[in-house]
Write a structure and sequence with these properties.
mainly alpha
Amino acid sequence: MTDFLLQSAWWLPFYGLIGAVLTLPWSTGVIRRTGPRPAAYFNLLMTVLAFVHGSAIFMATLNRETVEIIFHWLKVADLDLSFTLQISSTSIGAMELVTGLSLLAQFFALGYMEKDWALARFFALMGFFEGAMSGLAISDSLLLTYGFLEMLTLSTYLLVGFWYAQPLVVTAARDAFLTKRVGDVLLLMGVVALGTQAGSLDFPDLYEWAETAHLSPSTATLLGLALIAGPIGKCAQFPLHLWLDEAMEGPNPASILRNSVVVACGAYVLIKLQPILALSPVASTALIVLGTMTAIGASLVAIAQIDIKRALAHSTSAYLGLVFIAVGMQWTGFALLLLFTHGVAKALLFMSVGAIITTTTSQDLTEMGGLRSRMPATTIAFVVGSAGLIGFLPLGSFWSFLNGIDIFWFDQPWLVAVLLLVNCLSALNLTRVFRLVFLGPAQPKTRRAPEVAWPMAVPMVSLIIFNLLVPFMLERLSLLPDSSYVNIATVPLIIGSGLLGIILGSAIPLTRTWSRSMSFYVRFIQDLLAYDFYVDRFYYVTVVFAVSRLSQLNAWIDKYIVDGAVNLVGLATVFSGQGLKYSGSGQSQAYLLTILIGLSLFGLFLFWPFLKLLNW
């Protein structure tokens, strides 16, 4: 039975895809009389089956060796392109996290999008989303992984642009798609180059090749930078980070997955590429530098946001920046633990945000207040999610921060400062949001805000319980450090950084009008953070300007040079034809003589160089 479960693991990604297919009669409008809800139920049923099947396989993989399932696709000469799946406790656990959070997000969507006319289309896209993430979790082939990443890019475009009647949504979907495509194209170049060098794209073969590979410094650098470009785009890291902020225009249930497991998929690929990236010191250094810049910069930008979803989205980029630092330092265990604890906490935070948006019909923090007594379950969800994110003992992120600080304590103390700073700024931001939303006097949009209905409350309460049980799960899986090896000095630092952020977030003055400061320097800092360090405007005056001018130059060349040459030939043909029309005598002998003379002159022109060589 155990062998059957392990060998059937390749079915798991197909549950979500089958659910997406089953919704098509409703999402395409073939079936109208029943309404769109049956499509949602079919997709939920397939997600439940995927979760149950995956749970059975996860239990079977505990304390067992990794099992590989190989499907040969194309074999030509020395090139063997195959689809390889890795069935292990890590890969199946990652897939279970995907299907579990997808199940809760879809259940949440039943209440959040209850009156949306395109509910069936949304669930079809969610099934496609889930299938791509599930397949990526168990993929052990870089070729197959790249295919799933492309599916995620398409899913992001379709889900962000779900409400396509709104111009801002269309713009956000386009920008998210094009930004990710930049990373995907560079990653494809790296995949092709790596396949040429290694002769295989299966991760075990790549690891074996990397142990004995001897690449020139320039080749290793270009290969490493190309391979990290894809995860940079997927994880919203600088300089490809702006898409996640704009993606918040999409429905909130999709944002739950996007900020918890979708961005983690890009980091998961980066972790699997780490032995190959180790060949390039430049690529490892780039991961550390970009991760540090994003972690600190995004934490600062989040503090200045007045859109509640964007305030949390920038925090996602910051925590993924810490994962990039861990991979650059070759500490993948810390990276995996941080991905897990951040994912479950951030999913709970976005569920609470979805409940707030549903009852207030607003995302503007300046229009909220006084929801603590009106929405107690949502308040508890936000508090538990925040505590799980900022390293509050004994919840999940505390153990991941403890692991990271223990690793960097002696060798890289400056990274310890980065971790603590991000934790402090995250606590400050979440405290600020909590004060504006749940404390203070009620505002017009929050005065009559009730608690959400049970379709939204059940998954939210379930995720609260899951977050509280994370430490017990880590202990059961032997992921908690032994107390005898814990650096006691790190514990007060982690707790103290979180408390410092809470104190600062409680002390700073917050006004509902958010009037700008009269001081030039304070106003400059406010605008600098609120507009994301003006990165989008910098792109506009550099990259966008250069591409626009180059496009205009190409259009001018095409119109006046290429088209002009073609039109000149056509015009000459027309005039010559018209001229010959009036010179025709109607005698066939004259036509034959003309053809003979033309062919003779043409032959003389062709053979003239040879005649000169023969001294004729």
